[in-house]
Amino acid sequence: MTADLTTATDPLAPPPRRRNRARWIAVAVVVVAAAVLAVLLRVAGSGGPSRPPTLENQLSDRIVAIMEQATPTDHHQHGHGSIGEVKGQVLCAAKTLGFEPAGAKTVAEVRIVYGYHLCAVAEPGRAWDFAQKLSGPMSVQLTEPPVVKVAEGGEGFQDRVREIIPPPYQEAALQELLDEDQMRDLRERFDKAFSKV
């Protein structure tokens, strides 16, 4: 008699349960590794833990740094006249709408950034809901010193936006608001600064 090879089992082969367990462990390791990588990429990104390191995010961070380090005189020249009159820490968030040259790949190559910003002043006695806030479209020439132009609100606002923002970005500039993560980050930073004033 000859043995039927199709039904014979290999005595050295692991039981099927172990193979399935090994597969699940491998899947779990891949999922955990992917999650860790995603977290590391978010943390390594510019602008905090929730933003990837894109050129747009790096430019937004640059705008924020320029606005937050500006003197009261600088803010007045930007078009933030009333910020120059208050005593408190200016905190900002910004979103990049576009830049020149459009083909730039690094911050060093960018000459002008077009964006949308929100700045709030953390001063004694004025919590977030009552804090002075200024927002709107802006252009920033990345020169030394930087040249910031803000479209002030009021009558003729759309014309002032068109003066500082080129056509490809004008529609977004007139509608743009900061995203939820940016607003949450700004509010947290404001609350922290307010608790210290």
Poorly predicted regions: 33-49
What is the terminal separation in angstroms? 94 Å
Query: The biggest beta sheet, please?
Result: 4 strands, antiparallel
Q: Strand percentage, roughly? A: 15-25%
Query: How many DSSP-defined strands?
Result: 4
Structural commentary:
With 197 residues, this protein is α+β, with helices and mostly antiparallel strands. The chain is 43% helix and 18% strand. The protein contains six helices and four strands; from the N terminus they run αααββββααα. A four-stranded antiparallel β-sheet has the order 1-2-3-4, with helices on both faces. Mean pLDDT is 79; it is low at 33-49.
Concise structural overview:
By secondary structure, the chain is of the alpha+beta class. The protein has helices at residues 16-44, 55-69, 72-78, 157-164, 167-175, 180-196; strands at 89-100, 112-122, 133-141, 147-150. Helix content is 43%, strand content 18%.
Offer a few descriptive terms.
6 helices; alpha+beta; 197 residues
Please specify the SSE layout and strand pairing.
Blueprint: H1 16-44, H2 55-69, H3 72-78, E1 89-100, E2 112-122, E3 133-141, E4 147-150, H4 157-164, H5 167-175, H6 180-196
Antiparallel strand pairs: 1-2, 2-3, 3-4
